[in-house]
Amino acid sequence: MFDYPFMVNALEAGTIAALMAAVAGWFMVLRRQSFAGHTLSVMSFPGASGAALIGIPLVAGYFGASTAAALLIAAGSRGGEGRDRSQESAVVGTVQVAGLALGFLFLSLYNGILESLESLLFGSFLGITADQVTTLFWVAVATLLFFAVAGRPLLYASVDPSAASARGVPVRVLEPAFLVVLGLAVAATAQITGVLLVFALLAAPPAAAQQLTARIWLGLVLSALIGLAAVWSSLTLAYYNRLPGRILHHLDRLRRLRRGVRLAAALLTQEFVRNALLAGSAIAVASGAVGYFVVLRAQVFAGDALSHVAFTGVLAAALAGINLQVGLFAATIAVALLFAALGDRLRADDVAIGVIFAWVLGLGVLFLYLFNRTSGTNGVIASRALFGSIFSLTAHQTEAAVLIAAGVAASLAGLARPLLYATIAPQTAAARGVRVGTLGGAFLVLLGIDAGEATQAVGALLLLGLIAAPAGAAIRLTANPMHGLGLSVGFALASIWGGVTAAYLIPTLPPSTAIIGVAVAIYAATFAKP
Amino acid sequence: MSAAVELRGAAVRLGDHTIWSGVDLEIARGELVAVLGPNGAGKSTLLRVILGLLPLSAGTAAVLGAPAGVRNHDIGYLPQRHAFDSSTRVRGVDLVRLGLDGDRWGLPLAGGQSRRERVADVIRLVGGDAYATRPIGECSGGEQQRLLIAQALAAKPDLLLLDEPLDSLDLPNQTAVSALLGRLCRSEGVAVLLVAHDVNPMLQELDRVVYVAGGRVVSGKPEDVITSETLSALYGVPIEVLRTSEGRLVVVGHPEAPAHHSDRHHH
Questions:
Q1: Taking Cα atoms as reference points, which of A91, A117, A75, A123 lies closest to residue A464?
Q2: Which residue of A has its CA nearest to B71?
Q3: C-alpha B187: how far from its chain's center?
Q4: Crossing angle for the helix pair B141-153 and B92-101, nearest 10 degrees?
Q5: Please, are residues B59 and B25 in contact by the beta-carbon 8 Å criterion?
Q6: Which of A17, A104, A394, A454 is surrounded by the fewest CB atoms within 10 Å?
Q7: Which of A357, A304, A278, A352 is nearest to A469 (CA)?
Q8: For residue B95, which residues of chain A lie inside 8 Å, CB to CB?
Q9: At B233, phi and psi to the nearest 5?
Q10: For residue A304, which phi and psi values (nearest 5 degrees)?
Q11: Bridge partners of B62?
């Protein structure tokens, strides 16, 4: 297999990426910034599509977008003393969906064909050029140099920020610097593994290494070895099984995908708009209420993971030839139950979530590839699953959406008080007989159902915006739980109504982008509050 | 009336390690009792046993006349202090209200007149009117601690279990909270069992101390238990207890003596 240049390039690039990701990821896992890492990786999508739109090199888009996002996250999550974790969770989620929505907008504005969309999202390991290897190499050198110089103070700042700060470590400089370096490493790696899967290389090896040892150097070495083993073995496997490193590179499939998006826009009749508004409102109520607790419990990352799972569910159902909605909800509920079973080991930025969701997304890519071989119509399905299609809901789907949303909202109303207790003061609530673990699990299932529901409106990549942004804004504005719940629902409704109207009036504006745009604008506006 | 807490021949084992054994302990209603002892001796374990969260490996535990865990509704519990994240955007008054009805299904509404009054009463009792409507993450450590105590009191408990309620409070706040707890015991007949690092701030209010060390538990009046003889026997090394002119107790001769260690929490 070394006879083929593309194979040699892949091995070289994979080796460099694995080493770089192992080190950067080791710090990311230690700092519990998996969610930020994932978001930075996703930034390559708007970066590349934006670069294509304005006609600059894609690489510039990749690195520009991830650096900008890193600085935004660092600025937005700066608390009184160092970084503020639950704040960070909402900021990171919002930055991520804003980026994705922008990427989608750029994509639909861009009239030529963005050839690398699918390799952008899902990677094209076997299509790497020698130039890309060179770029990757220099980024890796720069990244490793940063860790060689700043590794020790960064470690101190990660483990005990106040003590580090007292000893003169510039914590407030190191934190954004780390995010920027992480962004660069991730952007470079994303060109190889794809935006959606970069996380597997970044989170899983360090997480495994940190489970195995608490020693720093041994951990870094193990992390690197595990990453290398994963890359080499999967490349060898892919070579001999002819399975996709480079899964989707079919231009005609891409054209169908774009035609599907245009078709949805062309079919703007009153009935579709009515369905969109009705289903959208129901989804907004459920997502706004669920989102309030998601943000309060700092589970934005879990919400993000569940939304990506929706993509895999839809494609699995398409492959199996069963009802797409059945697959959608089965997948989100199953993974929600899995998260619930992991229980306490699962906290806000937990790597376990990241590893599970990278794996499930990987399955989604496999399903997409298999489906692509057996059928020619997947473009629309994949596009809808990823980016939503609120304007193509049928009357029947609308009815189902309203019923499910009503069920979610009613269940949550029943759970709200003990759930709030279990969220704010878990030990006391447990002593009072509140089943904290069961409630947490039940909430995750509700979140899973809501994720499946909202996927239909805004798509798997963007639905986090509908869950996290309105609630994040509400929680910034009021500390009264009932007001917060109400505001969160109100903001979600405003996002749907505003977005649907804007998309109706401006045919080139995809509705998902418009909805998320309004939600993010509301969230951003709360930062203007003194 | 049954005792608030009654342990008979109780022992706790975690894995292969016996935390303590052969414990006989009775706490009457209206008593204010401090649990003292070195770090890791099993003080918080004692509270968890009383809450029925940890099974005994031997003996029996009766709480408010029923097996441990059955009457938790009538227990107010304050876990070992955890500071609220500065971005916890929920008000103190909401936290206190959850202490009253947080275990019931439904929306977190303010509730009827009687519930509102109860919440207002306990907040007044701990002196928290000025900051109860601020987000709890923005309150100071002492303010959070008072609101947490109000939360534990909201449902009119018969027994209060407090894990290091004075930890991270300054001296005036320690004295004020101690006085508040003493008042509760005397006026409302609540039994209070609290884990403490330092017995001195509340020496005035205490009815009894329970000393947990070396796998055993000794209880009695402070002046009977915190003596050179008892502590030397518990630790198995010579220990000297001195009494300063203002009545403060100083324990010398052991690295983890109760009046000294401020070694665990750095806030």
A1: A91
A2: A432
A3: 18
A4: 20
A5: no
A6: A394
A7: A304
A8: 424-425
A9: -65, -40
A10: -60, -45
A11: B6, B67
C-alpha A331/C-alpha B217 separation (Å) is 53
CB B42 within 8 A of CB B236: no
List, in sequence order, every residue forming a beta bridge with B211; answer none if it has no partner: B36, B218
The beta-carbon neighbor of A424 closest among B98, B101, B106 is: B98
DSSP 8-state class, residue A390:
G
CB contact under 8 A, B108 and A420: yes
A420 and B90 within 8 Å at the Cβ level: the answer is yes
Extract long-range pairs of B113-120: CB within 8 Å, 24+ residues apart.
B118/B154, B118/B156, B119/B93, B119/B154
Contacts of B74 in chain A (CB under 8 A): none
- Do A520 and A465 contact (CB within 8 A), yes or no? yes
Provide the CA B116 distance to its chain's centre, in angstroms.
Answer: 26
ipTM of the complex: 0.71
What three-state secondary structure class fits A44? Answer: helix
Given a contact cutoff of 8 angstroms between Cβ atoms, the answer to whether A42 and A101 are in contact is no
B107/A482 Cβ within 8 A: yes
Q: Is the pTM of this model over 0.80?
A: no
DSSP letter string, B216-263:
EEEEE-HHHHSSHHHHHHHHSS--EEEE-TTS-EEEESSTT-TTT---
- All residues of chain A having their beta carbon less than 8 Å from the beta carbon of residue B90 are 296, 420, 424, 479, 481
Q: What share of chain B is helix, strand, coil (3-state, %, to 5)?
A: 30, 25, 45
Binary contact (B135, A479; C-beta < 8 A): yes
Is the Cβ pair A431, B53 closer than 8 Å?
yes
Which stretches of chain B are assigned E, i.e. beta strand? 5-14, 17-27, 32-36, 58-63, 66-67, 75-78, 159-163, 191-195, 208-213, 216-220, 240-243, 249-252
Identity at A112, one-letter amino acid code: G
Token couple for A360: 């499930």
pLDDT in tens, A459-484: 777 788 888 889 988 988 888 999 99
Alpha carbon of A153 to those of A173, A369, A438: distances in Å? Answer: 11, 45, 41
Give the pLDDT band (50/70/90) at residue A373: low
* pLDDT category of residue B117 using cuts at 50, 70 and 90: very high
d(CA A210, CA B237): 40
**How far is CA A50 from its chain centroid?**
19
Within B43-130, where are the H helices? Answer: 43-50, 92-101, 113-125
